[in-house]
Amino acid sequence: AALQGVAELGLNCLHWSDEAVALRARAAFVRRLDPEGAWPDFGDGALLETLKDWLLPFLGNVSRASDFARADVHQALKAQLTWEQSKRLDQLAPVALDVPSGSTIRIDYAGEVPVLAVRLQEMFGLTETPTVGGGRVPVLLHLLSPARRPVQVTRDLKSFWANGYPLVKKDLKGRYPKHHWPDDPWTAQATARAKPRGT
After folding, report:
1. pLDDT tens readout for residues 86-117
2. What is the C-alpha to C-alpha distance for residues 182 and 132, in angstroms, rounded to an integer?
3. Per-residue CA distances from 147 to 59, 90, 94, 123 (Å)
């Protein structure tokens, strides 16, 4: 009866934590990357058809629709992966990447191409675009201003430093004088902070 309720109400009656949404998107990315890998299908249709396999063990006692939100969807989906698949998923579609500033930035796998949104100053000194998928897929970089507004979208960091950065620097240096705008982004020290006072 509980599963029938989910089937009728749809998957949105469940509580989709950020972790669960991210796991679903990462699994979809890896399925596209490695179609021979027998990865589980976490698409809406497949999940609704297999509710008893993945959701039932995590439903607990359900007496009304609001109880569905208590099910741990993230753990339920994770349980569908073998230990080997879980390890491989972390290798091919890491949750986050470490950038030159020392920050760890989450990757968004929701679209066709994984997106890394990071402040421009945190990428100084890096010449090649970071990759996922075992080095096969360059991420789409959303390079942000100090106010976290996109100033450039690129999958070619090397080209951006050579061609786009001088224009961006010219435009933003006056607007954000407390932040670093080095002439040579290739060798500059990446930072997540503004300049110290008095510099």
Report:
1. 999 999 999 999 999 999 999 999 999 999 99
2. 28
3. 42, 31, 26, 16
> Which stretches of the chain drop beneath a pLDDT of 50?
198-199
The total number of residues written for the chain in this structure: 199
CA-wise closest residue to 92 among 49, 30, 37: 30
Per the structure block, which two tokens stand in for 49?
């058809």
The pTM of the full predicted model, rounded to 2 decimals, is 0.89
The alpha helices in the chain, defined as continuous H runs, are: 2-9, 18-33, 44-49, 51-54, 56-59, 73-78, 83-92, 157-159, 165-172
Taking CA atoms, 179 is separated from 46, 66, 99, 116, 187, in Å, by 48, 48, 18, 21, 16
> In this structure, what token pair is assigned to residue 181?
């705008």
**C-alpha span between 175 and 177 (Å, rounded):** 6
Q: Which amino acid is at 137?
A: V
